[in-house]
Known about the structure:
Layout: H1 14-32, E1 42-43, H2 44-49, H3 55-58, H4 66-78, H5 80-86, H6 88-117, E2 123-124, H7 130-134, H8 136-142, E3 147-151, E4 155-158, H9 161-171, H10 177-193, H11 198-201, H12 206-220, H13 237-266, H14 275-278, E5 324-328, E6 335-339, H15 348-359, H16 364-373, H17 378-387
Antiparallel strand pairs: 1-2, 3-4, 5-6
Helix pairs in contact: 1-4, 1-12, 4-9, 5-6, 6-10, 13-17, 15-16, 16-17
GO molecular function: serine-type endopeptidase activity
Subcellular location: Membrane
InterPro entries: Rhomboid-like_sf, UBA, UBA-like_sf, UBA_UBAC2
Amino acid sequence: MFTTTGSRGLYKAPLSKGLLLVLNGLTVMLTLLPHYQEMFVYNLQAVTQQHQVWRFLLGRLVCLDVKDAFCSSLLIYNFRIFERRFGSRKYASFLLGTWCLSALMDFLLAQAFQFLFDYEVEELPAGLLAPVFSLFVPFYLLIPRMQVTQVLSHIHITNKSLVYIVGLQLLTSSPFMWLLALSGLISGGLYHSNVLWMQKLLFVPVWVSRIGRFILEPLFSSSQPTSETPLGMGATLDIQRQQRMDMLDQQLLLAQYNEARRNTRQQPQSGLFQWTRFFPSLRRRGQNRPPVQPRPQAQTPPSTQQPLLDNSPVAEEQVGVHPCAFISCPFTGSFVLLVFFDPPSCSPKLDFPVARLVEMGFSRIDALEALRASNNDINMATNFLLQH
């Protein structure tokens, strides 16, 4: 999942784990025993005309359709972040409040649909669907949106996109699923906004929470994962926003470095051929090239010609002697003299960032390549070298 929800698994989310195990277990049992499914059908006509009020309880808990159970389980698994952030009691109070409000909303929306379109809604999809849809309200309002990638340079894929896609799949699984979705969103908005003091009227009492903590929590609690890297789950909303901003800064630095590297590669070289296309080692970080020891030569006057192979502004100063090699051209058969230019070591402005990166443990070749591509920005170069 793209959602950044802390550690993987159901650690510190016993209520979410209990819902997943119990509700999905009942769904599988009813699939194997179809003659008991009639008791769990969410029939509004039977509730209003035959006064079967118990269908409000059984018909709004267990999914009879396996596809609905699978999609709702994925959403409950992703929404476990609210149980970790608010605590199991407050999370259970939200589910209880939206479950009671959505029961009323289901009846009112069905009556409104019948009044507007003269069509009576008899059955609705069964399961804990309206409270699941109500969790999209705090998910939209409280979870920060962080871009992960782009599709076709216009469509932004964020850490919340996959959750919305699963919700859309659940929305289109049944004809009247939109009625439950609308009921859940209205109920979630009312309870989250605390309209008419709903949070003080519909909540889980403390004594019920204590009973569940001592009886049910040992059954559904999960151990802390040890074989994974923590993704950063702050205790408060401000800490979480700061963590997301740090991740965004790292992604921005990496994107700037990649853009600068692409621009450097796209600059044309002088001459008939662009030799970097035929010799990839010239445009890599230089790890595969063996170090060349310059032979002692006599002092020659500085050359007045500009370098032909290095197009960065760092190498515009002239240097006395450089390592060179003769390479045969694969097309003409003639030999070409390749001269490897390095930035001058006499400039204090250039020696300082290179020395800093070398002191951090990076090789000089990698440091020079990173600084050249990042326009001598030591922060951007350090960020790239740490991540590669």
